[in-house]
Amino acid sequence: MRQPTGFLREKELIAILGIALILTGFVGFLLISNYHSLQKLRDSALKQYAYEFETRSWSLSNFLENQRQKIATIANAGKLELYFENKALGMSMKYGLRATILALEQELIRFVDQQRLQDRCIYQRLAIYNPQGDLIVDSGPPLSIALKDRRRRMSLLRLPEGFYALQPAGIKEQYFVYTRPYYFKTQYKGQIVACFYTDVLQSQFIKSGRAALFTGLFAPASQLVEIQPGPPLSFPPPSNNILLPDKHYQQWVAGFEKAEPVLTFESSVGNTNLQLREIASAKMIIGTTSPRTLLLAMVLLFIGLLGAAILIMRMIAHNLVLQTRVEESSKKEKDIALKNKQLQAEIEERKRSELERAKLEVQLQRVQKMEAIGMLAGGVAHDLNNILTGIVSYPDLLLMQLPEDSSLKDPLQTIKQSGQKATAIVQDLLTLARRGVVVNEIINLNTIVNDYLQSPENKKILSFHENVRIVTDLEENPYNISGSSVHLSKTIMNLVSNAAEAMPEGGTITIATKTVYIDRPIGTYEEVKAGEYVRISVADTGSGMSAEDSEKIFEPFFTKKKMGRSGTGLGMSVVWGAVKDHQGYIDVQTELGKGTTFYLYFPVTREKMKSAQPDSPIEDYKGHGETILVVDDVKEQRDIAQMIFSKLGYAVVTVESGEKAVAYVKENAVDLILLDMIMGSGIDGLETYTRILELCPGQRAIITSGFSETDRIRKAKRLGARQYIKKPYTLEKIALAVKTELCGSESHKLNNTDSTTTSQ
């Protein structure tokens, strides 16, 4: 029986040796890893604190540079130059010089009042002195004690441009000023002096960091005006001293170092001679533990672990046989428990995955619906509007050529009106994708309802639902609202269509209007805020909706209607978009088997409806041979524009790209450019107009596009293209825009026709 004992001793030695080597390597790895980690943490903390300090310094630099530039605008202003010009001409205070001073004073007062930080004024005073120290003009209030003395004021004269501190003897308050000399025709004529509120600058920019013992703004002696030399300032310095002498800084640092280790930070403040400095506690930034101390502690720990490991392994080796059997049994139990846990975790993970996948599928469906709308609207709007231009514009040209009694006039008007309705449908798609009603007119909901009930669209709906009848309950003389009659008419049409589809066996649709005042929020579908509204309701006696359907009723493409009669499910989404574009609210009341009522709330307006103006004769829009350059990548668009302008008496030149437009303008003068904003290849309208302005500054232009007004269109308008015409445009609209632009004056009127073209 001795053989097993010897075998166990041999195994014991091998195990002890192996474990000792593993522990040694592991602890060594911990030593090196912790040493480097601590060093990186200290470096990172120091860099982060330095970055925060530099950020504060940059903020102060940016503020001072900004104020320097703003005061420079005053120095370069025409009023100050006019004052010295009048004075040089010998003008007296009685004959005009006083008026110049008063105008300059008002400019200084306005400037001081506008310069604020968190609603606190930045400047105490902004003044201009002559070379003798006399006040020319200031922003008020009356002179402070420090500046009443002419000798003290003289100390600020002829100083180089920059920021200074002024603290005359006997005065506790320190003044932080910016001064710059003023030269008129190379002669020194005075000094501009701006006095800041020191407490505002200190509270906003000279802030201490989280570990700061002291933070201050220091300056060389040349920046400290009339500050008397003397013994070093005691610490801390007076709170009203914003600029501190450089010579005290090192003394204060040495004083702090006697108590604890410190770190110092310095940063130049912009282009000034000032420096922002901070004395910070080293232990608050990088901690108190040194990497060397940690290394020594880890070495001692390593030795202790190695000794303990050897002792433990000797004790374990004596019980190795028994433990092996116990471990085998325990291992089996653990394996079973582990597998059970893994199985349970896998089941729970699958449940979570299913829930997450369901949520993601719902979100994805919503995103795909909205993306489909955006792709549909953005993809067809430009091209479809280009196509519709022919349908909208050619009838105008044909009507000009027909005699008054022609039988073709009515069909041509019908074609034109159909094209305009198609344009409105494209605008519907853009409403879904972009939102925003571009037409704002004063309208009455009763008029919209009555016009809709007489429309072919309503008759078509009723033809599909012969057992449905519509009744109205319209309030007499409700308030007007502001919005788009086209969008609101389509909103009513979609609600009526939805109601008719909900009554397959027939029923009654009730359309009602009423002016209501809501004194507290109401609503079951969405909260209607307090206010005064004109409410229109559309109620049916149909089957009603379930709670699930009512939640989805306004989602794009959600529909239970018969395809071919009622569209593709965008109608109720258009309702939602139109109401929101009018800053309105929607409430829905429905019950299965009893019907549904939609309530739409629109804010009232006290403005009156404008009376329709008579159409102006075509002669009012004709030109006198002016040259118009038409830039459009679509040939049909160029042809239509050329025909319109030729009929109106203009000389027309057409090109198909921005590059050709730039080349043409380089060689030829034109009176006006009709410029398409989006072109298939090459540079777009904005880049074309920018290049043309480099060749011909002030060149007049009109922007056209099939899209809604974009940032690039607004930028082109800021460059000088004052008008934007949305495609497709009618002859009257484009003719009025061209005539208005060529006249170049808002006072020009075309026989009672408004000269401003909107982006409808």
UniProtKB/TrEMBL annotation:
Domain Response regulatory: 627-742
Transmembrane feature ranges: 13-32, 293-317
Keyword Hydrolase tagged: no
Modified positions (4-aspartylphosphate) in chain numbering: D676
The reaction(s) this protein catalyses: ATP + protein L-histidine = ADP + protein N-phospho-L-histidine
CDD domains from the UniProt entry: HisKA (cd00082), REC (cd00156)
Recorded GO MF terms: ATP binding; phosphorelay sensor kinase activity
Keywords: ATP-binding, Coiled coil, Kinase, Membrane, Nucleotide-binding, Phosphoprotein, Transferase, Transmembrane, Transmembrane helix, Two-component regulatory system
SUPFAM superfamilies referenced in this protein's UniProt entry, alphabetically: ATPase domain of HSP90 chaperone/DNA topoisomerase II/histidine kinase, CheY-like, Homodimeric domain of signal transducing histidine kinase
PANTHER family noted in UniProt: C4-DICARBOXYLATE TRANSPORT SENSOR PROTEIN DCTB (PTHR43065:SF46), SENSOR HISTIDINE KINASE (PTHR43065)
Organism, scientific name: Desulfosarcina ovata subsp. sediminis
InterPro entries documented for this protein: CheY-like_superfamily, HATPase_C_sf, HATPase_dom, His_kinase_dom, HisK_dim/P_dom, HisK_dim/P_sf, Sig_transdc_His_kin-like_C, Sig_transdc_resp-reg_receiver
Entry superkingdom: Bacteria
Protein name, per record: histidine kinase
SMART domains for this protein: HATPase_c, HisKA, REC
Residues covered by the Histidine kinase domain: 379-606
Coiled-coil region list: 338-370
EC number: 2.7.13.3
